[in-house]
Amino acid sequence: ANELLLSPAAAGEPTCAEDALYVVAAGRVHVRRDPQQSTGGRGRRRTRAAFAFRLAELGPGSLIGVHEFASRTRSEGVFLATEPTLLWRLSFDALDALAARDALAYAAVCRLVAAELCAECDRTKWRLGSILDALHATPLRDPLPRA
């Protein structure tokens, strides 16, 4: 419980040898935004207050680290196991070695990662559409013009 899954680094930095793709077998993992991890957050004057907040909660069957695996750079999310959690860990180095040994198995992992990224994209489009619908359905002082 309360264990960080990916090594702490600023968003946009390259992944390291300890980073891995995780599959949640049991338990819950919270994804949080950490303002100290954001790209450009260090050494730059902030124009507004930055704060941490929860982005998502992941359960059994969820994949963690798909953005890091696909881009080999860190994302802004901080993955924290908040309760006893069983994870399957596939290190990026082991997956790279798998690509050299068994291209079909590596292709299956890549298809799994691509499917997760596509599903996440669909969820994001639905959320943005819901937000836009709510904005246009609620009277504002100056309603937003529809494009």
What this model shows, in words?
The protein is built from three helices and seven strands, in the order βββββαββαα. It is an alpha+beta fold. The strands form two sheets. It has a four-stranded antiparallel beta sheet, with no helix packed on it. A three-stranded antiparallel beta sheet has the order 5-2-7. The longest helix is centred in the last third of the chain and has 35 residues. The chain is globular and about 60 Å long. About 3% of the residues have low confidence.
Q: Which key features would you list for this structure?
A:
single chain, 147 residues, globular, 4-stranded antiparallel β-sheet
In short:
The chain is an alpha+beta fold and 147 residues long. The chain is 35% helix and 22% strand.
Question: How big is the Rg?
Answer: 18 Å
- N-to-C terminal Cα separation, in Å? 47 Å
Low-confidence stretches: 40-44
Number of strands: 7
N-to-C series of helices and strands:
EEEEEHEEHH
SSE inventory with pairings:
Blueprint: E1 3-4, E2 20-26, E3 29-33, E4 53-58, E5 63-64, H1 66-71, E6 77-81, E7 86-91, H2 92-101, H3 103-137
Antiparallel strand pairs: 1-6, 2-5, 2-7, 3-4, 3-6
